[in-house]
Amino acid sequence: AAVKSYAAVDLGASSGRVMVGRVGPDSLDLTEAHRFPNRPVRTPEGLRWDILALYAGVLDGLRAAGHVDSVGIDSWAVDYGLLDADGALLGNPAHYRDPRTRGVAEQVWATVPAAELYAATGLQYAPFNTLYQLVAARSTAQLAHAKRLLLIPDLLAYWLTGEAGTELTNASTTQLIDPRTGDWSYDIAARLGIDLELFAPLRRPGDPAGLLRPSVLEETGLTGPVPVTTVGSHDTASAVAAVPAAGERFAYICTGTWSLAGLELTAPVLTEASRTANFTNELGLDGTVRYLRNIMGLWLLQECVREWGHPDLGELLSAAAEVPALRSVVDAGDAAFLAPGRMPSRIADACRESGQPVPESRAEITRCILDSLALAHRRAVFEAQELAGHPVDVVHIVGGGARNALLCRLTADACGLPVVAGPAEAAALGNVLVQARAHGQVGDRAEMRGLLARTQPLTRYEPRGTTATWQAAEDRLTAR
Ligand code: ADP
Ligand code: LRH
């Protein structure tokens, strides 16, 4: 039977890549056609994504990929570009770490109380949810002139095909979708003066999204027609689709710039307890709910590594493995770590202020970050099970952090559960598999996961020792 090739465009906050997935009756392999850095730019207007560099990277990647049967696009969530009446992009998309949303949530809650907002949208509080970004941009000339809003993957799909849509899994991160219906929260939008007409019609993973334009074919050397297929365009939705789990009793942690830790459910959890624990209900494939918590993730380490002038990561992690465990921990869920810059001293300050030993060497700071992440993973995995009434036997770690053996081992120890690590390129694999499904090559989610479990290299970490030391560290953090 035929093997088909799919290009997965996967843009993370730290790098973009175009991967080629080859899918056969019982085979799946993934190769990297092109990888490029994603470097946001601090402009006088604020922190902006370099969307043209990303688009150039996508075109270079498609050229390097060669013939494919279809293309799918996923990226980080919440951010968007605005188009004018001619369909031209108005300015560079703002970065979700841009401080323009500071204090905006409080304004919003004065109109729609936080509890009501959660009950209607199921989204955790994060200052950068699209809803808050749109309220922050309310009086800007750019928004006044905008006729269309496209989320980042939808913007790239529009540039590639000329067709505009709003993909649902990513739309669910705007805080303007009702997770029970998968449709817009018309009432919330109306009360906040957000014009839902800005959004292009909703489309779902598997839906056709147009054909590469002639100019794109020419630019990339591809021979048409090449269809673009809608995938779970939120990278985390694609990554969760590629968790190689059997059955339902699993938790996942998608680790990259962020750690997204939680469960796959069939219905949202919209209780007040869930809101105060800051769990989110994002939408996944086939009407599933991604019930998870955002944890600062390897961003903490990326920012230190940037400040230190990019030392070798492998050596840094080996040195961190030798540092005694749990000397000091920080709250890796704290939005205080959201902004870029000065990360080593911000971590040291947090330790000092909480009366813990101050990590000084690079190895000590790295260890503090990894212990803190493992601890935050533990809390999220436990609280999600409790709040959703959905017990698990295993934790799957996917994304770039699956390559970090120390982080995986510490997470297994902290949770007292086995960790299965891999695939590291989960978002790209989920992207590929949804395309393959749309092209009739694979069946339901369970079948996709079975194929991943059979074909992708995975590493298992059994928990060691007792979780009491982790519980004590957690008590230390929460007591403050
Ligand atoms: P994003 O999609 O958010 O850009 P990725 O999933 O690509 O992030 O993950 C990037 C992170 O993965 C890096 O910051 C790094 O910490 C980690 N990582 C990547 N490769 C390795 C490696 N070989 N060893 C340890 N960690 C790694
Ligand atoms: C991870 C991610 C995450 C969002 C954040 C903005 O790349 O998509 O799921 O919360 O970026």
Automatic annotation (TrEMBL):
The keyword Coiled coil does not apply. Residues 67-240 form the Carbohydrate kinase FGGY N-terminal domain. One of its GO terms (biological process) is rhamnose catabolic process. InterPro entries: ATPase_NBD, FGGY_C, FGGY_N, Rhamnulokinase. It comes from the Bacteria. One of its GO terms (molecular function) is rhamnulokinase activity. It holds the Pfam family FGGY_C. GO terms for cellular component: cytosol. Residues 251-438 form the Carbohydrate kinase FGGY C-terminal domain. The keyword Manganese does not apply. Keywords: ATP-binding, Disulfide bond, Kinase, Nucleotide-binding, Rhamnose metabolism, Transferase. PANTHER family: L-RHAMNULOKINASE, SUGAR KINASE. Belongs to the FGGY kinase family. This is Carbohydrate kinase. It comes from Streptomyces aurantiacus.
